[in-house]
């Protein structure tokens, strides 16, 4: 059965503060491992009042401490924002605190707007060295060589698994060349999904970390008892995306009954383009959507964003998703083993 994982946005809502958002993420991870999810990732975003995971490694530590077995990691760290040594030190420390549970997904985008890029002291050409930075980062996680003058303490020897994240074929080429697992961000940039997966699989070179390709597909899934209720819950995410186009990065807003009254026709077109692969509906609708996505992409893993405003409703969404996927997986296995 194709494993399910979670990408959590650590949303600060109109009814919570940053601490509440971090505690809700921790609580979701604890539930997720019971429901059978494989990973729980958070992402580096800066200057966004509605997202509380800017200090990503610290957020990961908080979440991992509240769970026992689920893998916790970054989806991802925007590597050109940092010296590889610093990220190795942070994630090596996490690996020592939570052995065998830490993942490190890396991307090359800034994760913010251009004004904040300047505040981060990121150089305009920082993304150009991304491949070299990934190799440097990998080296820090290897056992220290004799007389090695610069070590990432306590990262040496932890072999933290690195993932390449992407929303275009660039990341697919790099992940294939380095023999690393690849995660495609089709939850907000779906256009090049199939092309990127084809590049990754056709050009993949085996490595010490990974013998065969492993492709993860990101997707928005919101589940509720009925299609109508799920569509209503989904208006929170739709408003968030519309607000991005307006240049208004505020707190997460509660769902509304009439999304058409909120956005303009142009905003609607832009948002629906970004969210075109979303699966929103009742358990049966979600089941059909997940199966179709797996059949179309041959994904090795699905990473789910369920951007629901109310924490209990979000928990229920992930619980329903896990339940229908488990049932569907058992049915698939039964069908495959029938003579």
TrEMBL record:
Pfam family for this entry, one: Bac_luciferase
Domain Luciferase-like: start-end pairs: 4-296
One term of GO molecular function: oxidoreductase activity, acting on paired donors, with incorporation or reduction of molecular oxygen
Membership in a protein family: To bacterial alkanal monooxygenase alpha and beta chains.
GO cellular component: cytosol
Organism superkingdom: Bacteria
Residues in the signal sequence: none
Protein name, per record: Luciferase-like monooxygenase
């Amino acid at each position: 059965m194709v494993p399910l994982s979670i990408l959590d946005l650590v949303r600060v809502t109109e009814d919570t503060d940053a601490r509440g958002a971090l505690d809700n993420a921790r609580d979701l991870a604890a539930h997720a491992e019971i429901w059978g999810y494989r990973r729980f990732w958070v992402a580096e975003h800066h200057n966004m009042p509605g997202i509380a995971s800017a200090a990503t490694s610290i957020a990961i530590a908080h979440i991992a401490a509240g769970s026992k077995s689920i893998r916790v990691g970054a989806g991802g760290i925007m590597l050109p924002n940092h010296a590889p040594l610093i990220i190795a030190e942070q994630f090596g420390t996490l690996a020592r605190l939570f052995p065998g549970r830490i993942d490190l997904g890396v991307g090359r985008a800034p994760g913010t707007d251009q004004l904040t890029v300047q505040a981060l002291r990121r150089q305009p050409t920082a993304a150009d060295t991304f491949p070299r930075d990934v190799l440097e980062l990998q080296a820090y996680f290897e056992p220290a060589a004799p007389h090695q003058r610069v070590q990432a303490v306590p990262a040496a020897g932890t072999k933290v698994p690195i993932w390449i994240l992407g929303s275009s074929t660039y990341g697919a080429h790099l992940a294939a060349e380095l023999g690393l697992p690849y995660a495609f961000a089709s939850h907000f940039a779906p256009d090049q999904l199939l092309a990127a997966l084809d590049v990754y699989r056709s050009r993949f070179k085996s490595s010490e970390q990974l013998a065969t390709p492993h492709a993860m597909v990101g997707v928005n899934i919101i589940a509720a008892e009925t299609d109508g209720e799920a569509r209503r819950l989904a208006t929170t995410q739709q408003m968030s995306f519309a607000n991005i186009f307006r240049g208004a990065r505020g707190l997460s807003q509660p769902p509304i009954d009439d999304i058409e009254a909120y956005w303009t026709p142009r905003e609607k077109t832009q948002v629906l383009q970004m969210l075109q692969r979303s699966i929103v509906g009742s358990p049966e609708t979600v089941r059909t959507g997940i199966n179709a996505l797996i059949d179309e992409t041959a994904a090795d893993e699905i990473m789910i964003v369920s951007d629901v405003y109310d924490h209990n409703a979000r928990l229920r969404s992930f619980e329903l998703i896990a339940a229908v996927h488990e049932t569907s997986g058992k049915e698939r296995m039964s069908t495959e083993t029938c003579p």
